[in-house]
Amino acid sequence: MSTALAALEEAYARRGAPPASSKGPTVNRTPVVGYVGADMPVELLTAAGIRALRLTGDPDSGSQLGDRYLGRGVDPMARSVLTRLLAGSFGDLDRIVVSHDCEASLRLFYALRELRRVEPGTGLPEVYLVDILHLPHRTTARYNRRRIGEFAARLEAWTGRPLDLAGAVAAHNERRRLLAAAAELRRAVPARLTGRQFLAVANAALSVDEHIALLERLLAEAGRLEEHAGRRVFLSGSDHDTAHVYEAVESEGYVIVGEDHSFGGPSPEGPVGAGGLDALAEHYHYSGPTAHRATVSERAAHAARAVRHCRAELFFAYSRTGDEAPAWDFPAQRAALDIPALLLERQDYGRADLTALRKEHPCAV
């Protein structure tokens, strides 16, 4: 057993709890910023000396308050995050930053801003929107550069210190490189990491430096990792901010060897180039082809490349209730693939009805 993998899984289990730096007196305390969305330029948070906490929901704890303020038509993951914020589940956050990666995130931002304005007793901190667009136009690039610059200036105003952008970019690029190397462990045949394990590896609640140290240890201990010989699955579609669906699928004898949602690894992939804020804006402008911002043809082409790269034997598209966009891509994805493909749509948050999977693509445990 890899001790590094055990430590990463332990840190993943802590990701929904308040970080230690959010407790105690504010003097000399590291500021903690909770953030939402895949378009977050996390390098800027690190450059500001902030402890960044990606906010996640909990399918098992209900979302009554989130339902009240957002309505049940919004993605239940966003409703759960709002419920947990109002319940104080993330501790004392200094700020909340939301990226406009999808409509649900934008609705969450508006709800948080209005709740803080009209119901100050909620105790919500200041909320800020990072609005990165992805149209392939020069005007979009200029718009994104301005938004990145404004966010950098706001962070300097919050902390009262200049940003160490070069150091932060170098650290995050190193983490991306190590995560890409770890992803190859489960793409091996047989896989050396399950999908559930890689979810923990990629999303461990650690500072960037702590994460890098454990990833280096994991790669050094690769020879201690178990082999996993189940039927190889590529998981497409809705985000998975918890391991519930991964555990359900892999309990049937499958191994998830790749995915295209934002919790499955560094998003966007590849290093940030040299060039300061200009390079950072360009990096997030051309992020990966997610269901909410890419064309159907782009999604289909990406699925075909990714399936070949991870040697998947089954393509599994998952669309959650309130997040219908992934289902629209499925016919084109299926046509682009040379392996069996299955769509599970209108699934409850954190749940997967695997009846069709068992019937059409049985896999012995």
Automatic annotation (TrEMBL):
The molecular function terms in GO held by this entry are: hydro-lyase activity
InterPro entries from the UniProt entry: FldB/FldC_alpha/beta
Quote the Pfam families the UniProt record gives: HGD-D (PF06050)
Tell me where the signal peptide lies: none
Which family does the UniProt entry place this protein in? Belongs to the FldB/FldC dehydratase alpha/beta subunit family.
Output this protein's name. 2-hydroxyacyl-CoA dehydratase
Taxonomy, top ranks, is: Bacteria, Bacillati, Actinomycetota, Actinomycetes, Streptosporangiales
